[in-house]
Amino acid sequence: MAAKAKNPVWAFLASVQLALLLIGLLASTSIIGTVVQQNKPPEHYAETWGKTGAAVIDAFNLDDMYNSVWFLALLGAFSLNLTVCSIDRLPGVIRVVRKDNLGTATEQLLKMKMQHKVQRGGSVETAAQHLLGYLSGKGWKAARRDKEDGTLFFAQKGGWTRYGVYVVHISILIILLGAVIGSPTVAKKIFKNPQFAFKGGVLLPELRSTERIFSYDDESEIPLGFTVRCNFFDIHFYDNGMPKDFVSGLTVLEQGKEVLTTNIEVNKPLTYKGITFYQSSYNDMHRPIIHLTNLTTGKKTVFPVNPEQWDATHSWQEEGGQGMLRIQEARSVPAENGTGTSTEMQMWLMDSQGPPSMFPMSYGRPVIVERPSTKYELKIGPHYATGLQVSKDPGVWWVYSGCALMLLGLYAAFFMSHRKIWAYVHEVNGGAVVVFIGNANKNSLGFEKTLAALAEGFSSKNDSSN
């Protein structure tokens, strides 16, 4: 009977050609996403790409390409292709795994290349009984069927590995689902809930707090549901003036109570209630600020300096009581590099450990103050605002789960095989002969050695029993 013709639309959606086309489009457009910096202000694109280039970037939403409608549509088309392809081919794989291998004609089996013959004395039934026990002892659970000319055994391992490629397909769909769930575009246009998933940022000066950030998409305010405070910002530079590293001390507050305090830096973010804060940038506020670090406890405290009240007294809380700090005197001095001027100050510091300390301090240069049982490091420098990139991605665990599943599927698909063994017991010249026949869909050379060892072991067992 002639095979039923496939629906042409179904055949197109299941085709490898469509998969290759979509993969090529996704790969090539992703290159654009690496060339064009994402989520930058409009003036950045006008300055970098010119007026026409900026217009093209805006028209095709290339400044947030991975959340654009057309890129999500490509992902949707690829998901559809992958789903239809799997549905189309999976029944054939199921038939192979569930095939009645004992129904295979012995003439066909004896023509297979991978086989080893073992001469066995005695009756076919006796040899069959010994063979069944031997295979079971080697971990091969064999089924038996008596034939007109002998007895056929069949055992297999790793049949499930044929589904490895479909596990990979499912894992890709899970990863794509996670990407869609975590897309701000989907949250806004489909879920109608911008707070479900978002990407934005905020510039937060030292000692300032915020309860909201600003969306990269349209600069709209997004409430966090809690408060974040920047306790301090610390930056170090290379000798050439380029930033070496920078750290922000953040505190999360709920209803005015501190619930979490930590430091973040590049590649070391803070995550709270599914919202992640990344150290992204910084900005000079063009005002001075004093950084005080207790070198014994590691506690850091900062005091903004009001140029109009530079000699105000600043206080902080220590374990043994209250500490106080004040600029007693300030004057301009020539800068060390010979160009311009710097500021030199006379400082006054007192805590609960004896009389106050008085010492000089220059702008931008730290000093160490030794107290009876504590050391302090003081530095006065620019007042910074930390630039935080903030995102909420509820699909990230879908992506992680999909990646883990993909590794399992790839391992099964490429490093494991479906191995089959037939053992045909029949009579030749009055004695039993056992033919071991094998087949593997991958690593046939390795399985050939396994089959040879199995046949040799059965032959040795036969010799010892004789």
UniProtKB/TrEMBL annotation:
Question: Can the keyword Transcription regulation be found in this entry's annotation?
Answer: no
Alphabetized InterPro entries for the sequence: Cyt_c_bgen_Ccs1/CcsB/ResB, ResB-like_domain
Q: Which Pfam families match?
A: ResB
What is one cellular component GO term in this UniProt entry? membrane
Instruction: Set out the biological process GO terms recorded for this chain's protein.
Output: cytochrome complex assembly
Keyword field: Cytochrome c-type biogenesis, Membrane, Transmembrane, Transmembrane helix
> Where, by residue number, does the polypeptide cross the bilayer?
69-90, 163-182, 397-416
Keyword Phosphoprotein in the entry? The reply is no
Domain (ResB-like) spans: 16-311, 380-451
Localized where? Answer: Membrane
Query: What is the membrane topology here?
Result: Multi-pass membrane protein
Identification of the protein by name: Cytochrome c biogenesis protein
Q: Which organism is it from?
A: Candidatus Electronema aureum
